[in-house]
């Protein structure tokens, strides 16, 4: 299974050894039990963990139990074990019940994640909305002061932009996940150096000179809107989670017809077991979740979607010694990669 290949061994193995022991106990009793469910609830735990920390779909979860069934029968046959009818019923019943229980919990956990996400996003969107309403009211009351109007209008624009970004990221990723397709790009010639400097300029208020770029003047055929959003997400994340006293280094070069754009920061590293899950929708690294800067787990999945739509990829290296680096790798000409199925986003 493709999704299983992305998991580390401890996560992949999960609770299955305990479940196999429960099957052996159910089958090995003098009077075989109908299922291993009598002895434990590891199937529910397994389904819940698959929902929380992997990118599994229902069919992936069910496939795991199918593979387990085949392996158990194959091992028993190779060992020359002859099972009675009751023992076979106990084995198959245990797996059948486990599939139902794991799938049920898998669904419930996904529903809770979705509900929690919607509640959190709705709550967080109230902040920029409140700012918009407050500043609009102040404008109405004190519109005679030109300087005051300019200042409040700037706050309105900033708050509206924050809300627009949340909505755009949510809609894009929802449509991608629903259709299983890629973003539809509007390609045009772009200078990556100029685009990088443009984003740095827009983030200058937050960055306070911490964003240091060394990007070659490279022109490629890309989607300006999506590429800008992707690179801005990476810079914003670095500003949120890096050591606040450190510089954030951005590099850009080309090799073999590809753009290699990277951003590096120091600070708490992302643990190896989380370096894949943070690219999943609604999931952030644990350290990020403890950080005062809140997010919705939409940024990195969108960055990856943008990279893949351009025919490229998003990579990550993170350790205590070297810090954290994200690598954005796309071809200089993304036009040939638009033949695969894409989706039109509203």
How would you sum up this structure in a few lines?
The longest helix is centred in the N-terminal third of the chain and has 57 residues, at 85-141. With 346 residues, the chain is an alpha/beta fold. A 5-stranded mixed β-sheet has the order 3-5-6-8-7, with helices on one face.
Describe the protein's architecture and organization.
This protein is α/β, with parallel strands linked by helices and 346 residues long. It has 3 domains: 2-113, no CATH class; 122-180, Helix Hairpins (Orthogonal Bundle); 183-343, 2-Layer Sandwich (Heat Shock Protein 90), CATH 3.30.565.10. The chain is 56% helix and 15% strand. The protein has 12 helices and 9 strands. The protein has helices spanning 2-5, 9-13, 16-28, 42-53, 58-78, 85-141, 146-179, 192-202, 204-207, 224-241, 286-290, 299-309, and strands at 182-183, 187-191, 211-215, 219-223, 248-255, 258-265, 313-319, 323-331, 342-343. The strands form 3 sheets. A 5-stranded mixed β-sheet has the order 3-5-6-8-7, with helices on one face. Strands 1-9 form a two-stranded parallel sheet. It has a two-stranded antiparallel sheet with strand order 2-4. α6 packs antiparallel against α7 (146-179) and α10 packs antiparallel against α12.
């Amino acid at each position: 299974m493709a999704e299983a290949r992305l998991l580390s061994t401890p996560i992949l193995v999960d609770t299955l050894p305990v479940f196999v022991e429960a099957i052996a106990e159910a089958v090995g009793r003098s009077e075989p039990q109908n299922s291993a469910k009598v002895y434990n609830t590891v199937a529910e735990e397994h389904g819940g963990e698959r929902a929380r920390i992997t990118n599994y779909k229902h069919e992936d979860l069910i496939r795991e139990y199918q593979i387990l069934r085949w392996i158990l029968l194959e091992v028993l046959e190779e060992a020359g074990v002859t099972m009675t009818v009751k023992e076979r019923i106990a084995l198959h019943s245990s797996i059948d019940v486990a599939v139902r229980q794991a799938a049920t919990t898998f669904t419930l956990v996904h529903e809770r994640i979705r509900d929690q996400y919607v509640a959190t996003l709705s709550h967080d969107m109230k902040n920029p909305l409140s700012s918009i309403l407050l500043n609009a009211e102040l404008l109405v009351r004190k519109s005679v002061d030109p300087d005051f109007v300019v200042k409040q209008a700037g706050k309105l624009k900033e708050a509206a932009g924050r809300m627009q970004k949340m909505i755009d990221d949510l809609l894009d990723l929802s449509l991608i996940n629903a259709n299983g397709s890629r973003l539809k790009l509007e390609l045009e010639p772009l200078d990556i150096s100029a685009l990088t400097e443009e984003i740095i300029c827009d983030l200058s208020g937050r960055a306070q000179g911490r964003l240091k770029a060394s990007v070659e003047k490279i022109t490629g055929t890309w989607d300006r809107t999506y590429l800008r959003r992707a690179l801005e997400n990476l810079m914003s994340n670095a500003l949120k989670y890096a050591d606040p006293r450190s510089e954030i280094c951005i590099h850009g070069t080309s090799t073999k017809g590809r753009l290699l754009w990277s951003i590096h920061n120091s600070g708490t590293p992302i643990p190896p077991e989380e370096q894949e899950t943070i690219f999943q929708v609604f999931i952030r690294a644990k350290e990020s979740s403890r950080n005062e800067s809140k997010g919705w787990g939409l940024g990195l999945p969108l960055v990856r979607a943008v990279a893949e739509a351009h025919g490229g990829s998003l990579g990550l290296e993170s350790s205590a010694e070297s810090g954290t680096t994200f690598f954005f790798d796309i071809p200089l000409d993304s036009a040939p990669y638009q033949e695969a199925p894409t989706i039109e986003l509203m």
